[in-house]
Amino acid sequence: MRIGVFGGTFDPPHIGHLILAAEAVSQLQLDRLFWVLTANPPHKLGHPISPSDQRLELVLAAIAGEERYALSRVDMDRPGPHYAVDTVRLLQKQCPGCDLFYLMGGDSLRDLPLWFRPQELVEQVAGFGVMRRPEANFDLSQLNARLPGVLDKVKFIEAPLLEISSSEIRQRIAAGRHYRYYLPAPVYELIRQNEYYL
Predict the structure, then answer these.
(1) What is the pLDDT of residues 104-139, one digit of tens each?
(2) Nearest Cα to Cα of residue 104 among 8, 9, 40
(3) What ranges in 15-138 are assigned the alpha helix state H?
(4) Whether the Cβ atoms of residue 10 and residue 58 lie closer than 8 Å to each other
(5) What is the CATH number of domain 2-164?
(6) Is 162 in a helix, a strand, or coil?
(7) How far does CA 115 lie from the centroid of its chain?
(8) I need a labelling partner for 124 at 20 to 30 A (CA). Which of 23, 74, 153, 181 fits?
(9) DSSP-assigned letter for residue 28
């Protein structure tokens, strides 16, 4: 079974997340895609993050009705900080024999040598599904020299480049600016009804 691991704070989940998820499932031929809601990401320590329950509600609304998507609580049900290498190890225990494909942006691939125990992560996953980003151009051979074997596992995902970020959506909501079409309809309705991010 081929399983994608899509981690993030999803604060809130937006259409860019859904497009990347759909392209990953299609291009990597995934059987399932785990949306791993990160409660306490190491790279965002000190940044304000909405309560986990709120983000959980929004992710469930975003992925409802898509049978290949599932929410994973692997990072929510343990103390942080949460490192990708630990997340993958725990998912492998939950799904023995599965091939895990870790999704990331090109900037994260570039910075992978700076992650916690990156070589171990490279060895644990079947592949990395990488969203191409123009600003993340770098020498892949140098990356492979620092993390042997990583190049064999990189699968680039072709998808439209959407300049949408969760932080910009939060700013728009707080400022009373338009944000409706940046979000899946169920997520928009929950944010509007509950007055999130105001």
Answers:
(1) 988 889 999 999 999 999 999 999 999 876 666 678
(2) 8
(3) 15-27, 52-63, 84-94, 106-110, 118-124
(4) yes
(5) 3.40.50.620
(6) coil
(7) 15
(8) 23
(9) T
CA distance 4 to 101: 5
5: tokens are: 């691991």
Burial class of residue 152 in the structure, from the number of CB atoms within 10 Å of its CB (0-12 exposed, 13-18 middle, 19+ buried): exposed
* 8 A C-beta contact, residue 144 and residue 112: no
How far is Cα 21 from Cα 28, in angstroms, rounded to an integer? 10
pTM of structure? 0.91
Under 8 Å between Cβ of 4 and 130: no
How many Å apart are CA 98 and CA 108, to the nearest integer?
A: 23
Q: Which residues contact 115 (CB under 8 A, 6 or more apart)?
A: 83, 84, 85, 121
